[in-house]
Amino acid sequence: MKIFCLILILVFAFSCKKYVIPDDLTFVPQKSMNINGISLVKNNAVCIGSYTSQKDTVVSQYNIQSKYSLIAVKLGNTAPFSNFKNYENGDYSIPGYFSIVNQGLYEVKVSPKIFDGKEKITSIDFYSDKKIIYQINNDSIKSFDLNFNKFTLKINNDGNKVLYSNIEYYGLKSLDAQILLYKSENQSYLFIMTPAKENILLEKDFLYHYFFN
């Protein structure tokens, strides 16, 4: 009986070890992400700081003109012809282990494996509880508006490679956002802009013009 119990304990231990995802994200105050051809800090913008993974800057947070909050997420090793699909589905299930980036009104929860660049990104699926409204939709830029309570981004149809966002501010049912997915060479970048406070309105197409005009 003792031997049987010992075997069960060992099996359980090895199973746990197999599915543990190391959280190696480190926050560095005032450090900004660098992207070729794009300036992230301009027009009264302030970088709050960045999260690094193995010395690579993967998430940066900004305050824009004291009105808007911006999160930039780097998705490395993207295939030239990766697919992006969106679904109006608010019931998408997610795993339970995340690194959390708090933006006041909402949180972004990131699976650390999303930054593993060993596997090429060939598909990105975007699930939201409300319909997205495209402003630009081409091979290098997906820019759209979204009024959300929660949304999920899933890479390569892998349940362990997700970014999940939901409102955390008490009493707030939905939040306007401008979201932009930008592909440059073999990297993709996800930008999420929202009001810094609940009573601030987003200026139309502000996020796209902030980067490209």
Q: How large is the count of helical segments?
A: 2
Terminal CA distance reads 72 Å
Secondary structure tally: strands: 14
* Radius of gyration, whole Å: 19 Å
Written as H for each helix and E for each strand, in order along the chain, the element string is: HEEEEEEEEEEEEEEH
| Helicity level | 10-25%
Low-pLDDT stretches are 1-22
Q: What share of the residues does DSSP label as strand, in percent?
A: over 45%
Physical arrangement of strands within the biggest beta sheet: 1-2-3-4-14-13-10-9
Task: State mean pLDDT (0 to 100 scale).
Answer: 85
Specify the biggest β-sheet: 8 strands, antiparallel
Instruction: Please state the structural category.
Output: mainly beta
| Form type | globular
